[in-house]
Write a structure and sequence with these properties.
The chain has about 110 residues and is mainly alpha-helical. It is about 55% helix and about 0% strand. The longest helix has 19 residues.
């Protein structure tokens, strides 16, 4: 399952994983790369506490440090039905829109 830091909640429960779980893990990695921190990284947290913090990520202080586009991506991954294939064009649009916003904010 990889490390607890980046594993999906489903992986932490030891259950079967599909596309949505991989997208959640990717979202955690991207959020970490932007913020250099994830709230559940505290040393020694039991797995159940890590899971609870991940469940509550949308209420965390990370929302102030990470562009909303990344939480939109994570929310999409969380809402994606377990057996459905992701709409990769939609995911691509999230990040293309982010890139455009960043490009226009850097040019001002």
């Amino acid at each position: 399952i990889g490390s607890e830091t980046f594993a999906s909640i489903r992986a932490l429960h030891g259950r079967q994983q599909l596309h949505c779980n991989n997208l959640k893990s990717l979202a955690y990695v991207l959020i970490y790369l932007l913020s250099r921190f994830l709230p559940w990284q505290e040393c020694g947290l039991p797995v159940e506490e890590v899971i609870q913090v991940k469940v509550n990520i949308f209420q965390s202080s990370l929302q102030e440090k990470v562009p909303m586009d990344f939480f939109t991506f994570l929310e999409y991954a969380c809402l994606l039905a377990f057996n459905l294939r992701p709409d990769y064009a939609y995911v691509q649009n999230i990040f293309e829109d982010f890139h455009v916003k960043m490009g226009s904010s850097n040019s001002s």
